[in-house]
Write a structure and sequence with these properties.
793 residues; alpha+beta; Beta-galactosidase, Chain A, domain 5; six-stranded mixed β-sheet; 19 helices; 33 strands; binds 2-acetamido-2-deoxy-beta-D-glucopyranose
Length: 793
């Protein structure tokens, strides 16, 4: 056997031998990190699954990997079981304190649900971060839900208490910076402390909120990606705590130990404000659910809230933009917390509608776009079915291709001697695809904030006003509305709500049309450090002229087509014409420059960059036509066609079976993902033979975890693979889709869905020649996984 297979097997072995941690069953697959509370760049909590870790064997982490204290304990007939967090590790061994046993971990586009056995009780922690892009007000709320429910599994009645706390790390990266806190009860002005807070039946629906903030806030500042201003809130109601509801803040070990001993808290708020690492302060709630016969549950909400949220530059000068939710719900943080808390049922209904539609659309896509009638699409109804493997060791798939099954990893390969071509026997491609897009949904939306457009706008009652949307380029460099990060994410928004593309493009247009950018090509981003959307008045942004000019034109046309908004094309025609001029000059023979894949370095004559520019010139022809500039339209269209013909002579390898990575670099190749907009928008610039040639080429260069980005490295991009998949024949498309799902389930990466990974080995983050690892984490580019859904008409 080749050495390759042993490397491949590693993650599976690691998963199997984790001492003492029993593994939950994962549905629809095991992601490298499970989203917990993911609503904004600052409310972004995950738990890794690396090395067999689960919700109660690893700490919750901020997307960047920093540990967050989030602790959950269920007490059943006097015995406490930890189901969330690892706080119990710091307590002395107590016979009445155990770990709950993980049973299942499931996710969909909205929820991550973990179930555990806690003696005779099954506890479910349901983390809910709604993805409802058609609801602009709700989408602008940066808060998330945790619903913990308990159910007796033996038909008997049990005495049950629930405990939950968060620590001050949620509001500060620096562990030596002083944090202030207070507890508030809805409807009461004074902060709560002491026994006067004891719950009566009349206050069982009052909302209790811990508020945490830095003693010295620094508006619009960040420290290692943590906000330096605003408040973190953690809230609940007494709800089902029929007998007793208590709270406490104080030193973590004391508060948790006290709870385990007494099964209740002291109702005292620690008055000694301090840093997160000094006698670690935690902020806790305990619910005594009393005798639970069948089921009971508690709802918690939490998140980081900034008012104002973005600094913005346009012709009116520098503005501090308020979050959009202030326009919907008023300016009070308390009011926001209450509205959000009481909205759970409605949000759940809206979220379920989106999820149902997503499944129906995936099923429809595969009904309409497969070459075989043998496709099942019935699995959606039964996520727990054992749908995975056939028992046979080789076979022929529905495309007539032979594959060989490897019983040690459950996967098959078209070419077992090189492990090229992933073939997953009996796995519905629709299931693989669902696994990918469902995981991506919260990650995409969690990179954005929505704001009002003017300082004063939030209080005005102008209901026709619209928000701005600002994206943080999470993990790669924190830019605002990076054009080549909005571009890969575009398919998600075309599918989910095209208007949101306009909300992100508007500030880019406004800033440049107001004269704040001096160059004749499109700006790379609206600011180098989120949340400062102040542009680049000196024009010294990252130099990607061809990339971004093409992207802006393509996104603008895509938006206009999907939203039927020709007026938008008219509004920005002048700016786009300027960028198109740049493309006419530089697209066919691209100078030495970066493309969006800047980690790969500069390169002259990049085939994929050139074709983006050429397709964008074709798009400009459509735009000119739509606004009535018919002679310009004819000129753009004719040039696009002529450039494409010339491009083929430069770009296609002499073997005539693939395009090259760069002109005149014989035998080189790469993912030609920039032809996707031609198909998406039916532009007709790219002839069929180019699509067919590329589709036939990719399987031959695929590796275990997919097709490398290009010939230079083994790494690839998940977003660009799905863009490419959307340009291919069904058999090749399936290879990409199954490979990404296979990688997600097997990768040894430990953080939120990375878009950059190795197609060989254990599917790690790539390491360069100097041994430096590039970790892309939680990036919104995963919106690109929706490439297939965006093709649905
Ligand atoms: C994921 O990998 C595990 C461990 O090999 C396997 O049991 C499971 O069936 C796989 N699931 C999917 C969806 O590939
Ligand atoms: C998660 O739990 C919620 C209820 O809290 C339910 O509506 C949803 O369907 C569940 N999702 C999965 C994938 O189990
Ligand atoms: C619980 O009760 C139901 C109906 O009363 C019965 O069918 C079931 O077997 C019982 N389960 C256990 C674990 O006793
Ligand atoms: C509760 O007691 C605290 C002092 O412990 C006091 O500051 C607060 O005003 C009281 N709240 C109410 C509602 O009486
Ligand atoms: C945003 O701009 C302000 C004002 O220049 C600055 O103090 C702050 O540090 C900037 N924020 C980031 C994240 O760079
Ligand atoms: C929240 O944070 C901001 C800025 O850090 C602060 O000015 C404000 O008073 C805090 N509290 C509330 C309830 O909004
Ligand atoms: C709450 O009350 C306790 C006991 O009276 C006191 O020690 C503590 O400082 C108070 N906390 C706050 C935030 O005032
Ligand atoms: C009480 O628990 C039940 C059962 O889980 C749940 O349906 C209900 O919403 C809970 N009530 C509150 C106020 O949380
Ligand atoms: C309301 O907002 C819309 C969109 O921003 C704007 O066009 C309109 O002029 C505004 N109306 C008023 C009365 O301010
Ligand atoms: C698109 O907009 C035009 C002009 O507003 C309108 O006439 C047409 O009916 C719209 N088409 C669709 C499909 O909504
Ligand atoms: C770029 O490609 C063009 C067309 O093939 C060629 O004329 C030119 O020399 C190439 N530039 C470089 C630097 O290789
Ligand atoms: C590519 O072309 C070469 C030479 O024409 C040929 O031998 C080879 O089989 C082709 N490869 C594919 C994958 O079609």
């Amino acid at each position: 056997m080749l050495a390759g297979i042993y490397r491949l097997l590693l993650p599976f072995c690691v998963l199997g031998v984790v001492a003492g941690i029993s593994q939950p069953a994962y549905f629809p697959l095991r992601p490298p990190a499970v989203p917990l509370a993911v609503r904004s760049p600052y409310t972004s909590a995950w738990v890794t699954t690396k090395d067999g870790a689960t919700l109660n064997s690893a700490s919750a982490i901020f997307w960047s990997g920093v540990d967050l204290g989030w602790e959950g304990i269920v007490t059943v007939d006097g015995v406490s079981y930890e189901y969330l967090g690892v706080g119990s590790d710091a307590l002395p061994a107590l016979p009445s304190l155990k770990k709950a046993t993980p049973l299942t971990t499931r996710y969909d586009s909205q929820y991550s649900n973990f179930t555990f056995a806690a003696g005779p009780i099954e506890v479910t922690a349901s983390f809910f971060s709604p993805v409802i892009p058609q609801e602009v007000c709700r989408t602008s709320i940066p808060l998330s839900y945790l619903i913990t429910s308990v159910r007796a599994t033996d038909n008997a009645t049990h005495d049950v208490q629930l405990y939950n706390d968060i620590n001050a790390r949620w509001i500060t990266y620096a562990t030596d910076v002083k944090v202030k806190w207070s507890l508030h009860e809805s409807g009461i002005t004074q902060p709560v402390n002491g026994s006067n807070a004891t719950i009566t039946s009349t206050t069982s629906s009052s909302i209790f909120s811990w508020l945490l903030e830095l003693e010295e806030a620094y508006t619009f500042g960040e420290d290692e990606n943590f906000p330096q201003w605003g408040n973190f809130t953690f809230s609940t109601t007494a709800g089902n705590a029929s007998t007793e509801f208590t709270f406490e803040s104080g030193f973590a070990a004391d508060v948790r130990y006290g709870y385990v001993q007494n099964r209740s808290l002291t109702n005292l708020v620690d008055g000694d404000y301090r840093a997160s690492a000094v006698r670690e302060p935690v902020f806790a709630f305990a619910h005594d659910l009393g005798a639970v016969k069948r089921e009971s549950s508690v709802v918690y909400t939490l998140g980081s809230v900034q008012q104002p949220s973005v600094r913005y530059l346009n012709a009116d000068g520098l503005s501090e933009l308020d979050p959009w939710w202030m326009k919907c719900y008023g300016s009070s943080l308390y009011e926001l917390i209450e509205v959000h808390y009481r909205d759970l049922a409605t949000s759940q209904e809206l979220a379920a509608r989106w999820e149902t539609q997503l499944r129906a659309d995936i099923a429809r896509f595969y009904r309409e776009n497969s070459s075989s009638s043998s496709l099942s699409s019935g699995w959606f109804g039964d996520l727990s079915a054992s749908w995975m493997y056939s028992n046979s060791s080789e076979g022929t798939n529905r495309f007539g291709e032979e594959w060989v099954f490897d019983s040690r990893n459950g996967y098959g390969f078209y070419n077992p001697s090189t492990f090229a071509g992933v073939a997953v026997p009996d796995v519905d491609e629709a299931h693989s695809y669902y696994s990918i897009v469902a995981l991506a949904a919260r990650q995409v939306m969690g990179a954005y904030v929505l704001t009002a457009r003017q300082d004063s706008d939030s209080s005005s009652s102008n209901t026709t006003a619209e928000p701005f949307m600002f994206q943080k380029e999470i993990s790669s460099d924190g830019n605002v509305n990076t054009v080549d990060v909005l571009y890969p994410a575009m398919p998600f928004f075309l599918y989910a709500n095209p208007a949101m593309i306009r909300y992100t493009l508007d500030p880019l247009y406004e800033n440049q049309e107001d004269g704040f950018y001096p160059n004749g090509y499109s700006m790379h981003d609206l600011g180098s450090a989120f949340p400062n959307a102040t542009g680049h008045v000196l024009g010294d942004d990252e130099y990607m002229p061809l990339e971004e000019s093409g992207n802006m034109i393509l996104m603008t046309l895509a938006y206009a087509r999907f939203a039927n908004d020709t007026a938008y094309l008219r509004d920005h025609y002048e700016k786009m014409a300027e960028w198109a001029q740049y493309l006419l000059e530089f697209a066919l023979i691209p100078e030495d420059q970066l493309s969006t894949d800047d980690f790969a370095g500069e390169l002259v004559n990049q085939t994929n960059l050139a074709i983006k520019g050429i397709v964008a010139i074709g798009a400009m022809g459509e735009i000119a036509k739509a606004v009535g500039a018919s002679s310009e339209a004819a000129n753009f269209s004719a040039t696009a066609t002529s450039y494409e013909t010339q491009w083929e002579t430069f770009a296609i390898d002499p073997s005539v079976n693939h395009t090259m990575l760069a002109y005149e670099w014989r035998s080189s190749w790469g993912l030609l993902y920039n032809i996707y907009p031609d198909r998406l928008l039916s532009l007709g610039i790219i002839p069929d033979h180019v699509y067919e040639m590329q589709s036939a080429w990719y399987p031959g260069v695929s590796q275990v975890f997919g097709v490398p980005l290009d010939v230079r490295h083994f790494y690839t991009k998940s977003d660009w693979q799905l863009w490419t998949a959307a340009t291919c024949e069904p058999a090749t498309r399936r290879l990409f889709v199954d490979a990404v799902a296979f990688w997600l389930n097997a990768t040894s990466t430990q953080y939120a869905f990375t878009d950059l990974y190795d197609t060989v080995g254990t599917g790690e983050y790539p390491t360069d020649d100097d041994g430096d690892i590039t970790q892309f984490i939680a990036r919104p580019v995963q919106g690109g996984e929706y490439s297939l859904l965006a093709l649905l008409k």
